[in-house]
Amino acid sequence: MGFFSSKSKKEESKPIQSEPEVKREPVAPPKMPTSTDMIKTPTNNLSIIKENFVVKATMKGKGSLVIGGEFEGDITIDDTLFIERGASCEGTIHAKNVKISGIFTGTVYATAVEVTQSGTFNGVIHANKTSLGGDIKGTIRSIDSLEITKTGRVETKEAKSKKIKIEGKVHGRVVASELLEVVSTGAIEGDIITKGIRTEQGGSIVGNIQTYDEKIHSKDSAIDEKIASKRDNTSEEGVEIDPEIARLIKIKPDDMKKYAKKEESAIKRIPEDKK
């Protein structure tokens, strides 16, 4: 008995080794769609149409809307509309911002429009500034700026803005009332009308180049009758006026001519022999 008693004491004197602690990674909460540089993903006063929902309606309201399923109809909201990747929407949109990562068919009126790399757009864009990084077919009217990113593939009757920057591919008529910039990864094939042009080595331009003339080129030339019927005539100065956009950016239609009268930055002019 003494032997066993002594042995048990030795065992009791040994330090007890604890099992190694297992580190558990914290579980991250579900993420909202990630945002790119131009338009942030809406978070406040947010309504959501979830995936697997099919909605046909006319929607009006305040705040932002995320479409994750299928929607058909007209939407008017005072903040951001986000069409998620895998979602689809067809109709006419009036919103402050519109961000498309899914599929959209129709007409958009907004201050800012962004089509991400996964987005597909087929229709007409009326905006103040636009960024296109997906597959685009249609007509683009972007008052202040238009950017075709590296992943952008645009087929257009006419893409028109004051300043146009092309990093991706464009096929069709391009009109820049101030500056057209084509970077090394950019390519244009079609008729080009611009006041100034800047190109990087590697950039591709195939087509006829004309000098922009406000009296001639300020009017819409490649927009269908349905959309044209919603637009007023140009002002006496020949500057395009779109009451829908003017309303969204909270200025009077007659004041839109100011957009065309900002001081021009130093840009490369088209030589006389190239006109």
Verbal overview:
- The longest helix has 12 residues, at 2-13.
- The chain has helices at 2-13, 214-217, 225-228, 243-248; strands spanning 46-49, 54-56, 59-61, 64-67, 70-72, 75-77, 80-83, 88-100, 103-115, 120-132, 135-148, 153-166, 169-182, 187-189, 192-194, 197-199, 204-206, 209-211.
- The protein folds into two domains: 37-132; 155-223 and 230-275, no CATH class.
- It contains four helices and 18 strands.
- It is mostly beta strands and 275 residues long.
- It has an 18-stranded parallel β-sheet that branches.
- The chain starts with a helix and ends in a 27-residue tail after the last helix.
Instruction: Give the H and E element order.
Output: HEEEEEEEEEEEEEEEEEEHHH
What is the count of helical runs?
Answer: 4
Oligomer, anyone?
single chain
Q: Tally the beta strands.
A: 18
Helicity, as a percent range:
under 10%
Shape type: elongated
Domain count, please report it. Answer: 2
Tell me the radius of gyration: 28 Å
